[in-house]
Amino acid sequence: MQAYINKAETLIEAAPYIRKFSGKTVVIKYGGAAMTDPLLEQMVMDDIALLSVLGVKPVIVHGGGPAINAMLKRLSIEPSFENGLRITDPQTMEITEMVLSGSVNKKIVQMLSDRSIRSVGLSGKDGGLFEAKLHRPDGKDIGSVGEIVACNTEVVTALMQNGFLPVISPVSAGDEGDSLNINADIAAVKVAAALHATKLIFLSDVPGVLREIGNPTSLISTIKIDEVPEMVADSVITGGMIPKITCAAEAVQKGVESVHILDGKSKHALLLEIFTDKGVGTVLW
Ligand SMILES: Nc1ncnc2c1ncn2[C@@H]1O[C@H](COP(=O)(O)OP(=O)(O)O)[C@@H](O)[C@H]1O
Ligand SMILES: CC(=O)N[C@@H](CCC(=O)OP(=O)(O)O)C(=O)O
């Protein structure tokens, strides 16, 4: 009996948040380590399906770096990176597109379909979603890596208006119709900004931004975007978190109300972040 009372109380507590975010667009960046465990994947999909049933409008932008690495390994190709971006030679590009716009994208669509959520998989190429060009950081050639120059969300809004949940792979085309590999965090920011999303949520492999890496009790719950440059300068934020947090700050500057960084491996992190007062990760605004 007590268990039912607890569940009812949880629902009552969540009710104002469910009302608040019903009809609101929430872009979820799903990728990295959160995607490597089949049980975790099912759990994340349960949460996204529930959000959708409760009237929130989720849009998924996915990565799949570990899945690309696994396929490269099967083909005996060694992955290499430059400042977190995959150096993408023609063969790696072919595999990246097969994995992201193919198997990973369709797997997510299928997992949602298994939960009676109608979703449609897209890549940056579909409906002219992303216009991209070759990315050359400081003039350096890192192969077929792209940067997004425009984001045309008509195809995404058309799907949402018709009750479909969009699932977006970041792989796009350049001016010449050549495939370009785009970091999924960056793609998620562009989509969130173009859709004027209420929230952008990064599902990562850490509980949020930590004062001390490896110590979950040092979680920083709230960051104002003007604090970000100092945190980077003071080396509070390092490595893979730098592009993520810089992206997050860009999203807020472009009108996304808040950006959240959560542990995709933590049970029901998405629901707890959206539907409770305290949340569980780091929120940037
Ligand atoms: N202050 C910090 N708090 C949390 N993580 C940090 C911090 N500074 C650097 N990191 C690193 O950033 C990583 C998350 O970024 P990244 O590897 O790009 O994530 P993902 O694979 O989810 O896209 C963490 O695994 C951690 O090693
Ligand atoms: C240019 C570049 O680095 N693209 C990424 C795209 C996938 C991605 O971003 O996946 P995660 O979110 O799982 O890291 C890559 O090839 O790994």
Automatic annotation (TrEMBL):
Keyword Cytoplasm in annotation: yes
Identification of the protein by name: Acetylglutamate kinase
Segments forming domain Aspartate/glutamate/uridylate kinase: 24-263
Chief location category: cytoplasm
GO biological processes: L-arginine biosynthetic process via ornithine
Pfam families recorded: AA_kinase
Sequence similarity: Belongs to the acetylglutamate kinase family. ArgB subfamily.
Keyword ATP-binding assigned: yes
UniProt-annotated binding residues for substrate: 64-65, 86, 181
UniProt-annotated site: Transition state stabilizer, residues: 29, 244
Compartment list: Cytoplasm
Catalyzed reactions per annotation: N-acetyl-L-glutamate + ATP = N-acetyl-L-glutamyl 5-phosphate + ADP
Keywords: Amino-acid biosynthesis, Arginine biosynthesis, ATP-binding, Cytoplasm, Kinase, Nucleotide-binding, Transferase
NCBIfam families named among the record's database cross-references: argB
Pathway: Amino-acid biosynthesis; L-arginine biosynthesis; N(2)-acetyl-L-ornithine from L-glutamate: step 2/4
Function: Catalyzes the ATP-dependent phosphorylation of N-acetyl-L-glutamate.
Cellular component GO terms held in the UniProt record: cytoplasm
PANTHER family on file: N-ACETYLGLUTAMATE SYNTHASE, N-ACETYLGLUTAMATE SYNTHASE, MITOCHONDRIAL
